[in-house]
Amino acid sequence: FIFPHSVSLLPLLSVLSALCLDCLVAGDSCSSDENCSPRLRTLRQCVAGNGSMKLGPGARSQCANAVSALLSSPLHGCQCKRGMKKEKNCLSIYWNHVLQPHLIHPYFSCDILFLTLVPSADSDVGMTTVNRCLDAAKACNVDDLCQKLRTEYVSACIKLTAKSGLCNRPKCNRALRRFFDRVPADYTHELLFCPCTDTACAERRRQTIVPSCSYEGSEKPNCIMQMRICNADYVCRSRLAQFQYDCEPSKTSASGCKQGNYGACLLAYTGLIGSTITPNYVDNSTSSVAPWCSCSASGSQRDECDSFLGFFTDNICLSECRRRRRPAPRRVCRMGITLTARSLDCLTMLFHLLQRPHKTFYWTELYILMDFPSIMSSRFD
Ligand SMILES: *[C@@H]1O[C@H](CO)[C@@H](O)[C@H](O)[C@H]1NC(C)=O
Ligand SMILES: *[C@@H]1O[C@H](CO)[C@@H](O)[C@H](O)[C@H]1NC(C)=O
């Protein structure tokens, strides 16, 4: 293709990047700004609880002033990207700066801009195939990133260390998180949520995340204890907050979900895989899911425990999301907000096709995902 000089593309991308400002970048840009950085320093002291000592008698108003000044800085509304480099640092900025009153969890919903070009014949076939689990595995194998990261986690999870004869669980979980954070949901969700009608299929689906290494043990720990461990870790705590927000059930909503967003709920569910509360299918004869923990011996915390576990096992929103999900149309190109040579090619191809409609391909969708999960949810029935 000849590159038509992409007039409107670069500004578009920079707008998107600005809207999806991550807290690390926001923190850096504040620190290097002479108006912003003293405010940030003040706020840090306020947050650390040392405000009144270091800031003197006027501390309360100084803290309030710092907060209101920072509300117009890039830190306000900054978020983090799942699986990003230094995710933990980003999350700690998020949770420690009380500047996000309107946000419930720290993760972006606007991190991906992708383009879909669908061959006309294939798109119909895609919807009627018999064995979606098998198709999902094949689709993953032909995508470079999916294939690579899947191979990585499988080998990390099945490898036994010479010393103990056991697998390396932390390494397995890290590799699983990389897979679910970096590979587009079209692949990962289809592998995990494809429908099964027999136990062999259900068993393969259950084995997708290598339970024997990623979470199973000789006995189930108590769920409240697991929840505490999770909340003590920025990443796990953020994933859980995202899951509880996006998969909150509702009896009155037709979708079963309070947020009404299927894509977001499934994305939040997979965000927990590789954490202390990794959820998975409990057996090969049902499609119930739960983390590896139990509520027996919870004593006075029985109710709290049951409601935590019930959020997985008895959640109309989560079960509807899984049931209604449909495979995505075949994608020819996709892109993130970081502009690469390949994504530019893809855009160029798209613009080229728009100008001169092609015989075999027609463009069906240009997702500019300001709100990634909600547009994704349009692919559900
Ligand atoms: C206050 O700050 C000092 C160091 O500047 C630290 O050692 C101390 O633990 C802090 N106190 C509180 C209550 O955070
Ligand atoms: C289903 O699970 C049971 C219990 O773990 C196991 O014995 C059986 O072999 C599994 N079935 C298949 C088809 O893998």
TrEMBL record:
InterPro entries: GDNF/GAS1 (IPR016017), GDNF_alpha (IPR037193), GDNF_rcpt (IPR003438). One of its GO terms (biological process) is cell surface receptor protein tyrosine kinase signaling pathway. Keywords: Cell membrane, Glycoprotein, GPI-anchor, Lipoprotein, Membrane, Receptor, Signal. It is found in: Cell membrane. Gene3D superfamilies: GDNF binding domain. It comes from the Eukaryota. It is a lipid-anchor; GPI-anchor. Belongs to the GDNFR family. This is GDNF family receptor alpha 4b.
